[in-house]
């Protein structure tokens, strides 16, 4: 086992990893290098964690988990504030903690086991004298950039822009709301993270960016400063959410989310950890979770494996599947928020069902199992006599007739043979996950200029291809006025019913 371990970056990933490794093998020399002078200088406000993350932390390090829990704000549910009402999305199963407080706890925990923390120094990973260099230097990782070819880095910026602000009071629950000013649309994700603090994360699309002058404000901000002009506008837009108070800032300025894909997370004696290795859109609230879970896996691998190369392979082998799963869920969540404008006028009930099922890990039956009244109201657009048992909803959805000029169906699910008898359709093959790409734009404009036949999206039954078709169907439904169907595997009843219920497809075709 290596003797000297250098960690670049004292964020959640670097600090927690250092603590776990040094605790497991006190003979090691473990040094964390952090460019910021103090934890209070960090960016951002509160971060959300889930109970499942807390379970993982507890089993790796009960003492630190307990301190994180004690310092967290717990017991708030998640709600959606729509233009026609407020809908509960899920119960109190999330925690939130101030980022600065989390870093304080992790710093203390690392120092308590003998980790050395050198603050106020920006280091170059390649110049460190260590057997293992752990690059936990965040989403803008200079280490990753330096070895971009070796890591096989691809990165893509998200479409929306966001700012991370705070408020000096605790909102009653975590919630989403949107405010309109002419053509500009501002969305906020707000959540409490201490008895007197909340995070207000605010997003805008391109149209709002240009229309509200945010682009001009942004150009005038010096590096390291907050964008005061944008913040003043946001304070006015969200005045009622903010109860007349101001927004707190901390080098607050607009960013676009970096979506990363890497072929490998290690090169020679350097390994990437947390946001340096992967990102998953913040609307899934999983960046800190993934960073902390990476730290657990890398510490275990370095202690358990004979060579550094084996340890890096074991770490990546253990973490890749979960990270890839979260990235896929997060990608769909990101696309949902990027295209929020198209759904803004929907009722809060419909929006809530669409939101809860946006990533594909929850189905109509899951949502209805927890929020039956809201789910039933959300289905009223499909037909009358919505069942009052959650378990009967999927069957009911698929049994609702489709009555559209050019297409009449007795139910929303039809076999290939049944479709032949029912209607002529235009079939289009699709399996790309990005349904707002230029290729998808071209497809939409081609379809606008074509005949009015219903469209059926077809393609392989692969696990990623089916959701991609469902997402494209939703886009086509938003932009064209003809029935849009999706080919799904025979056994995918929940997915099919959820796609129809949430307004993503008019009908589904089973092979
Ligand atoms: C708007 C927004 C909201 C978010 N909300 C949530 C949420 O609700 N829940 C959640 O789990 N996650 C959330 N995240 C994500 C979360 O903040 C990150 O995923 C998490 O901080 C990753 O931890 P990390 O340790 O990998 O990187 P970071 O936290 O970025 O830490 C990297 C550290 O490295 C230091 N550093 C960088 N370069 C050098 C260098 N050369 N030398 C020395 N030090 C260096 C930096 O100063 C920094 O302290 C959010 C992110 C954003 C942008």
Structure, explained:
- The protein has three domains: 4-73 and 94-156 and 258-336, FAD/NAD(P)-binding domain, CATH 3.50.50; 161-237, no CATH class; 362-510, no CATH class.
- Helices cover 39% and strands 24% of the residues.
- The chain contains 19 helices and 22 strands.
- α12 packs across α14 (372-378).
- The chain is globular and about 75 Å long.
- Flavin-adenine dinucleotide is lined by residues 8-14, 33-36, 44, 47-48, 122-123, 136-139, 142, 162, 164, 201, 274-276, 282, 285-289, 291.
Topology, element by element:
Blueprint: E1 4-8, H1 12-24, E2 29-34, E3 46-50, H2 51-60, H3 62-70, E4 73-82, E5 85-98, H4 99-112, E6 116-119, E7 132-135, H5 142-146, H6 148-151, E8 153-157, E9 161-167, E10 174-181, E11 184-194, E12 197-204, H7 206-211, H8 214-219, H9 228-237, E13 258-262, E14 266-267, E15 270-272, H10 287-304, H11 308-338, H12 348-356, H13 364-370, H14 372-378, H15 393-399, E16 402-404, E17 407-409, E18 413-415, H16 416-422, E19 426-429, H17 438-448, E20 455-458, H18 465-479, E21 484-488, H19 493-501, E22 507-510
Helix pairs in contact: 1-4, 1-10, 2-3, 2-10, 10-11, 12-14, 13-14, 15-19
Bound molecules: flavin-adenine dinucleotide (FAD).
Please describe the biggest sheet, giving its number of strands, its sense, and whether it closes into a barrel. Answer: 7 strands, mixed
* CATH domain fold name of the largest domain: FAD/NAD(P)-binding domain
Helix content: 25-40%
Sequence of strands across the biggest β-sheet? 3-5-4-10-11-12-9
Continuous helix count: 19
Rg, Cα atoms, Å:
24 Å
Number of domains: 3
Tell me, what's the shape?
Answer: globular
How many strands appear in the DSSP assignment?
22
């Amino acid at each position: 086992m290596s003797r000297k371990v250098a960690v670049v970056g004292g964020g959640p990933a670097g600090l927690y990893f250092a603590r776990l490794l040094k605790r497991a093998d006190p003979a090691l020399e473990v040094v964390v290098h952090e460019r910021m002078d103090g934890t209070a200088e960090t960016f951002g406000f509160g971060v959300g964690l889930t109970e499942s993350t807390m379970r993982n932390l507890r089993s790796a390090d009960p003492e630190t988990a307990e301190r994180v829990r004690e310092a967290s704000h717990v017991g708030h549910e998640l709600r959606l504030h729509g233009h026609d009402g407020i809908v509960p999305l899920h119960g109190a199963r999330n925690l939130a903690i101030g980022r600065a407080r989390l870093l304080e706890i992790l710093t203390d925990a690392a120092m308590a086991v003998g980790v050395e923390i050198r603050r106020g120094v920006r280091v170059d990973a390649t110049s460190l004298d260590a057997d293992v260099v752990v690059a936990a230097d965040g989403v803008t990782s200079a280490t990753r950039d330096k070895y971009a070819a070796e890591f096989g880095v691809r990165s893509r910026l998200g479409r929306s822009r966001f700012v991370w602000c705070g408020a000096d009071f605790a909102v009653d629950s975590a919630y989403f709301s949107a405010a309109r000013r002419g053509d500009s649309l501002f969305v906020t994700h707000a959540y409490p993270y201490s008895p007197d603090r909340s995070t207000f994360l605010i997003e805008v699309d391109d149209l709002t960016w240009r229309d509200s002058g945010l682009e001009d404000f942004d150009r005038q901000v010096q590096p390291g400063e907050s964008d005061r002009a944008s913040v003043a506008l946001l304070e006015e837009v969200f005045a009622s959410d903010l109860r007349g108070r101001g927004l707190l800032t901390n080098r607050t300025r607009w960013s676009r989310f970096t979506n990363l894909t890497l072929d490998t997370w290690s090169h020679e004696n350097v390994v990437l950890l947390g946001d340096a290795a992967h990102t998953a859109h913040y609307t899934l609230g999983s960046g800190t979770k993934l960073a902390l879970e990476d730290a657990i896996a890398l510490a275990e691998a370095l202690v358990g494996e004979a060579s550094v190369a084996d340890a890096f392979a074991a770490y990546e082998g253990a973490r890749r599947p979960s990270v890839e799963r979260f990235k896929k869920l997060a990608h769909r969540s990101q696309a949902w928020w990027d295209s929020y404008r198209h759904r803004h006028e929907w009722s809060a009930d419909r929006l809530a069902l669409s939101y809860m099922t946006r990533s594909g890990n929850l189905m109509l039956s899951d949502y209805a199992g927890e929020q039956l009244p809201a789910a039933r109201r959300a289905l009223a657009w499909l037909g009358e006599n919505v069942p009052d048992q959650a378990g009967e909803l999927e069957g009911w959805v698929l049994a609702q007739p489709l009555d559209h000029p050019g297409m009449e169906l007795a139910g929303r699910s039809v076999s290939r043979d049944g479709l032949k008898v029912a209607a002529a359709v235009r079939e289009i093959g699709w399996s790309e996950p990005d349904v707002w790409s230029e290729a998808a734009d071209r497809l939409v404009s081609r379809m606008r200029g074509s005949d009015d036949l219903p469209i059926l999206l077809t393609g392989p039954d692969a696990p990623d291809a089916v959701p991609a078709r469902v997402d494209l169907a939703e886009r086509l439904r938003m932009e064209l006025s003809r029935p849009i169907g999706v080919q799904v595997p025979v056994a995918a009843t929940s997915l099919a019913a959820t796609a129809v219920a949430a307004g993503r497809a008019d009908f589904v075709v089973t092979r």
